[in-house]
Specification:
Layout: E1 2-8, H1 9-23, E2 27-31, H2 35-38, H3 41-46, E3 51-53, H4 58-70, E4 74-80, H5 81-87, H6 89-97, E5 104-108, H7 126-131, E6 137-139, H8 144-153, E7 161-164, E8 169-172, E9 186-188, E10 194-198, H9 202-215, E11 220-224, E12 227-229, H10 233-242, E13 245-253, H11 258-269, E14 275-279, H12 289-295, H13 300-307
Parallel strand pairs: 2-3, 2-4, 4-5, 5-7, 6-7, 10-11, 10-13, 13-14
Antiparallel strand pairs: 1-8, 6-12, 9-11
Length: 308
Amino acid sequence: MDLNKKVATRQSYGEALAKLGEENENIVVLDADLAGATKTDIFKKAFPSRHFDMGIAEQDMISTAAGMATCGKIPYVSTFAVFAAGRAYDQIRSSVCYPNNNVKVCATHCGITVGEDGATHQMLEDISLMRTMPNMKVFCPSDDTETKWLIKEISKIDGPVYVRLARLATPVIYDENQKFEIGKGIQIGDGTDATVFATGVTVAEAIKAQEELEKQGISIRVVDIHTIKPIDSELIIKCAKETKKLISIEDHSIIGGLGSAIAEVLTDKYPAKLIRIGINDTFGKSGKAEELMKYYGLTAEGIIKAIK
């Protein structure tokens, strides 16, 4: 992990989208008056005729994208997560998931790391909302490398996709040689004292905890769950059998998110105790992203405390 190089996954998204546009002329991008923040303006500069600013009309944007998908286009739809998963939920359910339309909803500014935008903009429920819908696949990449791979890979999926992207810049974890696969988590280390399942911005924090605990003689493994649905049941069960403690950590409500998805697997296939770290059934608050992560226990220190 390169702690000196930090990139926000929304930036990686914009760059990957522009490159994908060169490779596939059916890629179109829709944004809701936030292209500068979501970084779809990078695509817009390269392909202005294939970028559509729909204004502050998220429901209309999703419906338009669904129509484009029926005509053979591959729409990538972007706005903040609170608007994508919240305001446009009905349209995603009825116009995208129900007819199984090929629309990629790429939502930026998720979780409490939106920071100073405060509780109204900190979307802590989107994983829960999106993963309960039939036909929808849900992803939350952890770094620049993984995001760029994912944005191209989902163009090959014929059906609805939700991608959760962060505002906060985070360390680059993987090099260009890393192999990724849809539906398969990435195990980092072979520790047996505990497994920490993490997603998105919390993966880097889990690795920091891993490095610190190693100095103290505590051996843990980190599992990057970039695909939340379909989740890697096989790896979850393997870790439950091989390690003494299981912990999940996410920048999301503990209700319905990564921890819930893992608990469902364990309940059905290999009952084991899971400690869930996340936002405990409360709204967020305004503050600097790093301070909020510390306040809610979403840092390396929070993981270490849970393991000890």
